[in-house]
Amino acid sequence: MSKLAYLECPTGIAGDMCLGALIHAGVPLEYLIEQLNRLGISDEYRLRAESVQRNGQQATKVHVDLKPNSSSEFVSEPVDQPYTTFVHSHSATEPAQAATHHHADSGYAHADQVHTHHGHSEHPHPHPNSQPSQPDGDEPQTKNHHRHARHLPEIEHLIKAAQLPTRAEAWSLAVFQCLAAAEGAVHGIAPEQVHFHEVGATDAIVDIVGTCLGLDWLNIDHLYCSPMPTGGGIIRAAHGRLPVPTPAVLKLWEMRQVPIYSNGIDRELVTPTGAAIAVTLATKFGPPPTMTLQKVGLGAGSRDLSIPNMVRLWLGEGEASSTEAQQHWHSGDRPNHPQQEPKLHATQTSPRLRHPSPTGEGLGERSGPPLETVEVLETQIDDLNPQAIGYVFNALLAAGALDVFTQAIAMKKSRPGVLLTAICHPEQVADCEAIMFRETSTLGIRRSTQQRRILAREIQQIETDYGSVRVKVAWAGPGKEGAIANVQPEYEDCAQIAQQQNLPWREVHRVALQAWYLQQKKAASGGTIHTSPDRPYR
């Protein structure tokens, strides 16, 4: 049996929320503090945790209190000032007035500075060179002084020199490298040139390394993650006003093809730090894996929202696939108590980590067709003219629905009715719901989020004795590397030829399919067609 963990992120994800969930799940705070002290930056912050209530549920809130200067005074998070803002001061004579990152819809850094959110828009901490959005155009009120900046190589040196547990070290390096790669891609610079401002980097180091330490302490073999909420709104940054999600978060999602959706909360919900942790370490994104649930850790954000503002970390045991069993996170023994050093097996190799890939497959996952998030809308109708259903079909498909269908059902009072179902991408939900309300007699629509796995496909053109026909070709493997799984001539082309030439539709379909296979055979023998000559088919 493998140790499995699932990150459920209904209100997004941030580094401090991950830490809170791990501590709530049983990782000793003292152990994290002891291990993090090895990084040599303990004079820059204080790590603490407290129990809080979020919508009536108890959760753990982690605070990284940053030291504003060389004095020993720490300043705690201003959780009661949700719109306090912090900007980077370039003046050596300007005094430091605050010490913790406040991310109330915080903004984006300059090209040489990383937007390293410790907590998302619901988790206040100051951010250098950013001016978070203010209510009614309020101006920033506080500023933050910094000492110097850390580039990626310096952070890597801190982690490598700390003699952390092997897996925690490797995962921490991978997360920072992933974050730097995303930031570099956004700004058009090499990852090594990405500039982490010290105050901004300190809490990111604590969040990322602390999360990796916690996962290692729990001896997790496979980490899974839910789809991500996009958030929304506008943030004010040094470069001006920017939309949410921020560029770095979008780039991280793009790197891994993370399934995303809108939960209706217009705030910055996913931070670059939180996104980097999930994108780098998660085996896959989607619904929870099959497992025996043993414990749930709750990591709180700073504000109360319409739904509980927390990350839920599900812990349990389950059977991993044979491929996952071969590619799991190689682990040393978890320490039995904070003072005990993890011992590695003598034959253990370096940890094998997943890296972001365009297929969306993660650690321990066999490469295969990517997953995407879809919304399923359905409603029951028993008092609508059947002629209207056909019109609704066409309207929904024109609005971008992926599929529309009906099922005959028996409703209350023994009335025959139909179950109307539309499947669409999250961005088409509003349009499809508007059509269903406008064109039918329904008073309510149910909505559910699901995952679907789709094959790579393309349209190819072939010539037949009857004319040109488009053929849809689908591949079973990732991209177009696998065996051809399905070949189907397009219905509309076959129907048009059949009507124009007074032929049976089935005859046109048969001839088109035969022509495609003949072209494949010709290509395999050296001829030229639109597809690869060495691509197998079945």
Descriptive overview:
45% of the residues are buried. By secondary structure, the protein is of the alpha+beta class. The two termini are 36 Å apart. The model is unreliable at 70-147, 322-367 and 528-538 (pLDDT under 50). The strands form 8 sheets. It has a 5-stranded mixed sheet with strand order 13-8-1-15-14. Strands 17-18-16-19 form a 4-stranded antiparallel sheet. A 3-stranded antiparallel sheet has the order 20-21-22. The chain contains 12 helices and 22 strands.
Quickly describe the structure.
By secondary structure, this protein is α+β, with helices and mostly antiparallel strands. The protein has helices at residues 15-24, 29-37, 152-161, 166-187, 198-217, 247-256, 272-281, 322-326, 386-398, 429-439, 491-500, 505-524, and strands at 2-8, 45-54, 57-66, 86-88, 142-144, 149-151, 195-197, 222-225, 228-229, 234-237, 240-243, 260-261, 284-285, 292-300, 310-318, 371-381, 403-410, 416-424, 446-453, 456-464, 467-475, 484-489. Helix 2 packs across helix 5, helix 6 (247-256) runs parallel beside helix 7 and helix 9 runs antiparallel to helix 10 (429-439).
